[in-house]
Amino acid sequence: MGSFVIEALKSRGVEEVFVPRSVDYDLRERSAIDRLFNRARPSLIIHLAAKCGGIGANQKSPGSFFYDNALMGIQLMECARVSKVAKFIQVGTVCSYPKCPPRIPFREDDMWLGYPEETNAAYGLAKKMLLVQGQAYRQQYGFNSIHVLPANLYGPRDHFDLENSHVIPALIRKVAHAQQAGNSTVEIWGTGKPTREFLFVRDAAEGILLAAEHYNEPEPVNLGSRKSITIRHLAQQICKIMNFKGTLRWDTSRPDGQPKRALDTSRAKKKFGFQARTTLESGLKETIAWYINRRTTAGDVESIHTSACA
């Protein structure tokens, strides 16, 4: 995501973009953030930094998922306030929504009507606390913080390791490895029945920057594609694109995660004109082509999660 946001910023003529890397600036450390602000002196912050992963990673490390994500965001926003940064864009997560919302698609006003799905609740709640912080800072200090909630993201430059990847890169990798090994079966977690809404990373970057340019209100805003698909049909579509004719074996002893996930994106369209343009099929084709090309030339690649300061 970070690299696509940076490209979108530069395409708009933004010349001074500072991208802190975790090896240089550990955002869990206040002293590191102070060094970052002294060097970059940002007027706008897009907070994309996150510790994230799929169901397995969330189940394995809920404590660090909560601590790292909450601490990074809380300290970064506080430093931005003290430094009088003009605007702070917090990129949240669809995992903050209740497991059993009162209606589908999810509306922003339903955010507090239940507890998140258990397998990724720690991550979702950590990000949700940054929504609370931003709203509280706006009320007390007049701090211009906004909060956007993208649907499940996918696209080129994602990380494809099975330990931490999300569903689309995990499926692509499993199919590619089955083809390479000559295996006729691919094993997938769960029943395949849950639904997900996917947002192509380039569309997400555009939505984030439109919000940065035009949105200045306390309520969170969904960014999505307005279309959902079952995991089973998603897997079948990936197999079709990759010309894999083997069998999909569903491991029903593994968790499904959130039963249904889809977003009402009417607020984003009304407030700043955002509408996703990339179809799932074309986005999957581009993602698969990128992965196959990188895999043949440089092996599997993990993404780098960053914040962008402008």
What is the residue-averaged pLDDT? 93
**SS-based structural class?**
alpha/beta
How far the N terminus sits from the C terminus, by CA atoms, comes to: 16 Å
Largest sheet: 5 strands, mixed
Total DSSP E strands:
10
Tally of separate helices = 10
CATH topology label = Rossmann fold
- What's the architecture in CATH terms? 3-Layer(aba) Sandwich
SS strand fraction:
5-15%
Provide key terms for this protein.
alpha/beta; 10 strands; 44% helix; 10 helices
Record the SSE blueprint.
Elements: H1 2-11, H2 30-40, E1 44-47, H3 55-60, H4 62-82, E2 87-91, H5 121-141, E3 145-150, E4 152-154, H6 167-181, E5 185-189, E6 195-200, H7 201-214, E7 221-223, E8 228-230, H8 231-241, E9 247-251, H9 266-272, H10 280-298, E10 308-309
Parallel strand pairs: 1-2, 2-3, 3-7, 4-6, 5-9
Antiparallel strand pairs: 1-10, 6-8
Structural description of this entry:
By secondary structure, the protein is of the alpha/beta class. It has a single domain, classed as NAD(P)-binding Rossmann-like Domain (Rossmann fold). It is built from 10 helices and 10 strands. The strands form 3 sheets. A 5-stranded mixed β-sheet has the order 7-3-2-1-10, with helices on both faces. The longest helix is centred in the N-terminal third of the chain and has 21 residues. It starts with a helix and ends with a strand.
